[in-house]
Amino acid sequence: xxxxxxxxxxxxxxxxxxxxxxxxxxxxxxxxxxxxxxxxxxxxxxxxxxxxxxxxxxxxxxxxxxxxxxxxxxxxxxxxxxxxxxxxxxxxxxxxxxxxxxxxxxxxxxxxxxxxxx
Amino acid sequence: xxxxxxxxxxxxxxxxxxxxxxxxxxxxxxxxxxxxxxxxxxxxxxxxxxxxxxxxxxxxxxxxxxxxxxxxxxxxxxxxxxxxxxxxxxxxxxxxxxxxxxxxxxxxxxxxxxxx
Lengths: 118, 116
Hints:
Chain A is mainly beta.
């Protein structure tokens, strides 16, 4: 089945560090990928839609300069949390749509990244 | 306004029994899709079942079935013969139309606990 690889799975770093998270579609092409943030026991909140070859579309309230998204190829999108602070600690998860899929095709999710800022 | 509503923060079910997880949605778009995902404590999102707004029949996938009541805008997930491994968070999600870029809006989730 379709596989999305997300790396790293866990990051612990000091405040002020920038952290890059990668999301790769391993066996399909994905013009569109999505980045979500999830706090414990809460729902997934869409942060942005990543579009290959163009700028990402951010949801209301998400800081573009804080969460940099680059979708440089049809199989890779990256999320960089710049100058991370403790309040950025969260579970970040990406998903990808198979370009061949129709409207009934599910998004394929990565396994998520647990980010802890000390 | 909340587009996807799951009113059950937590549910308990006895092993081997059936359980229904509620989901209601709100949209004015005639074309939409409804999805259910399972999220174990490890965090990965596992796709369970899909229902399209134009589908005439309720979707079924193994032990999972979707009770789709379009007029009531509800899409409840039914899990039959519950297993201990079914204990997890369950999320209902909606994708509106085609022009929305395929993004999913998730409900608050229901934490299901299966008791032996």
